[in-house]
Amino acid sequence: MASTVMAPEAARPGRQARTTARFASFPAALPGIGVLAVFGVVPLVVLLVTALGLGATGAGEDAGFTLEHLTQVLTSSQLRGEVVNSILVGLGSVLIMLVIAVPLTLRMSRDGGGSGAVAVVFTLPIALPGIVVGFFTILMLGRTGIFAQAVPALGGSAYALPGIFMAYIYFSFPRVIGPLQASVSTFDHSLVDTARTLGASRLRAFFTVSLPIILPAVVQVLGTAAAVTIGGYGTIATLAQHERLLPLSVADQLSNGYRVASASGLAVVLALIAAGTLALSRAASTWLSRRQR
Amino acid sequence: MSGRTDRAVTRAAVTLCALFILTPAVVSILVAVSANSARGLLGDGVTGDWLALAWEQMGETLRRSAGVAIAVVAANLLVGGPLAMWLARSTSRWTRAVSFLATLPLAIPGIALSIGLITLYPELRPSGALLFFGHVLVTLPFALAALTPVFAEPALQTCEDVAASLGSSNPRVLLTVTLPMSTTAIVQSVITVFALSFGEFNISFFVNPPASPMAPFALFDAYATQRLELASAKTMLFMACVVPLLLVTVAAQRARQGKE
Amino acid sequence: MSDRWLEIEQLSIDYGGTRAVREVSLSVPAGTTLAIVGPSGCGKTSLLRAIAGLVPVAAGRIIAGGDDITSTPPSRRDVGLVPQQYALFPHLTVRGNVEYGLRARKVDPRSRAEVVERLLTFTELTDFADRRPAQLSGGQRQRVALARAMAIEPRVLLLDEPLAALDPQLRGAMRRQLMTLLAASTGVNVMVTHDRHEALSMADHVAVMRAGELVQFGTPRDLWDRPADDFVADFLCAATYVDVEADDRGVHALGGHWTIPHELLQPPSSRGPARLLLRPDSLLLHDAPAPGSVEAVVTHTEFVGESTQVTVDVAGRTLTARSGRPVRRGDRVFVTLSMGTALVQKEKVAA
């Protein structure tokens, strides 16, 4: 496992047939559950209530039930574009990363090449917040970035969709490679050898043996990483000039003019997209791995 | 077969990926020590002035961020440790529901959570208490992910059984067997939580008390308003705070893998 | 008291809503080794964990050294535990492991050092005292686990599959060494195993369990000679019971297809229904009919080195025999009983 930050799906291990559960005390667990409830669940409920116009309202907002704050992502063409871009960039960057990472991690688990230095480098971006990743992109592809100095046409591309894509690929790199390395580490390479001795070409063996076996893990990684990239604010906040993603509007609604209900509405939509991606991928992953048994 | 070319191709791909990751970091360091980066990397010679200025402007903020991160780590151990133990070992049917709760802060974008938090608890914001709890909330799932599987390991529980049958009281079992055998996981969760809290920006964006910004805010501000060299120097200081910790975690993980 | 050092009375254990162990009673004297055998899931490990106090008891009592320990917490039972994978504390040295219980009991440093040195010498681990468990071989780990449990001079020493974690090639030698070490303990050694050779060769008393119940309890010789039922015969002796009816002409088996002369049987049979205990070496194979033989067809052969293990079909019943000379599948052979080896027992055997 090369990733510092493991995706917490392993939080429920197989329970052993034990009747003594030493140190497992519900009262001792309560403060933790309390934090999750008081600062996680309750704010989410309040967010939803506010988004429906039933809670706090801000400047120029009427109190009373309305779906307007939620449906504005459909009615406003600007917001519609942001939603599409958010999904495109969030999913797209992770998909591009997977196309690179699936063969790479398979080959690394077979051929080695994962020295300590490589493990550190591949994990490095996880310790960097999104804003730093955005800044890195400016250094490379900004108006005076080093690529712009070499190829003037690239100047300022950090702020256009291709540059934003690069930033999000960088951001998702450790979030894809790390969990994928962990699940590929148990991959049985003799399966591929067997397929090859049966006459399968390298490509055929990959698509008919390796990929189907690791697909549940790949789908799960896709969802987990995409949920983070879709919801991330830092990177786009640094790179926002012409192109906009949904998290920007969530923040703007609140900071410019304190439209709290509208901001909550957009936040709920953003949360639905991110959490929905995660939930869908988990369901698909479970379905796929059940089909293998 | 062509094993050697295979390995060469793998190595080349790994190297390319490493370059992709490292180049911007190296460039930011070079810009930070350039007198005038508009004239190219290391343009007009090398200087430490930007770093000195960055430290002068940001040292206090880094210290404050580290303080918050340490408090968040402590809270995670005190609150997350017993919770992880319960999740790992209890036969209660509620563990499933609580593990689901613990995935919420991962699935819900921080910016959305932070709007909910300031709407609900505005009075906690100025003191920084809301920032603290927000950070505990988003880091808790990672602490649980590191600790729960280790606490659930049958080998650990068998060692505890043996220690008890040899005459150890429960607190003694905890101190002499459970904690020493979980050291790697505990260190890993401490470092992960510290790094996450230190670099947290999404949930902090609205929750952060305006009077005392945290390190990522100082960076964000620098990116928007300051010279590239100074912004790079501040980024370099920030990385200097978290990257060494990352080295420790990776080393600890590899040591454990080597043992197995 | 010492002839009933460990006593288990009507013990029942529940496991997640189902009864894992049902009303087991047995007692063994001090200085002996009890083996609990049975197939996996028979409740033998639950019984062991109940003696250690690691699973709650639903009903019944456990008495060790004269004290009722049924509800005593594990830390005050004086029960030494050697788990299957030994569960050595990985963060402590060999010495640290062995002295763990003595430290927990606040034994003063001088006598602690004395006990540890004695046990390290006894288990031949003195040279490894400062090593960590990860640096030891499987056999050395087993001895550390044993020394650690013996250091507290337990009333009962519990061993869960003590040889299962070792290489099969090492097991013979380790079994002999383990027996020497176990002989030194003053309480009762309780060993759980699924291997009948281990149970028969190492224990003074054997308890056979199946589906949570005690099927038979006795000395290895008792069980070998008079297994209580088909299950014990098959599991412990690799033998088969065949129902017979004895009259003046002989003993009739397999629905009258096979009549065996009285003089081949040991002890000589009385008249009436009985059972025949057939072990692989009880049957002889011939090419031609012989007095008291029955015709059979070879269904499977397996060369095992010193002989050939032959499975034959006799009037629809499958039996196993050993043959010195080669036979092939499909061969027609004639089976007789070897002189005096098979026992006829009364239909009702006391369990």
UniProtKB/TrEMBL annotation, chain B:
GO terms for cellular component: plasma membrane. Residues 62-249 form the ABC transmembrane type-1 domain. The keyword Cell inner membrane applies. The chain crosses the membrane at residues 12-33, 66-88, 100-121, 127-152, 173-198, 235-252. InterPro entries: MetI-like, MetI-like_sf. CDD domains: TM_PBP2. It comes from the Bacteria. One of its GO terms (biological process) is transmembrane transport. The keyword Flavoprotein does not apply. Coiled coil: none annotated. It is found in: Cell inner membrane. It is a multi-pass membrane protein. Keywords: Cell inner membrane, Cell membrane, Membrane, Transmembrane, Transmembrane helix, Transport. PANTHER family: INNER MEMBRANE ABC TRANSPORTER PERMEASE PROTEIN YDCV. This is ABC transporter permease. It comes from Aeromicrobium phragmitis.
TrEMBL record, chain C:
GO terms for cellular component: ATP-binding cassette (ABC) transporter complex. PROSITE patterns: ABC_TRANSPORTER_1 (PS00211), ABC_TRANSPORTER_2 (PS50893). One of its GO terms (molecular function) is ATP hydrolysis activity. Residues 6-236 form the ABC transporter domain. It comes from the Bacteria. InterPro entries: AAA+_ATPase, ABC_SmlMolc_Importer, ABC_transporter-like_ATP-bd, ABC_transporter-like_CS, Mo/tungstate-bd_C_term_dom, P-loop_NTPase, Transp-assoc_OB_typ2. It is an enzyme of class 7 (translocase). The keyword Transcription does not apply. Keywords: ATP-binding, Nucleotide-binding, Transport. Its EC number is 7.6.2.9. This is ABC-type quaternary amine transporter. It comes from Aeromicrobium phragmitis.
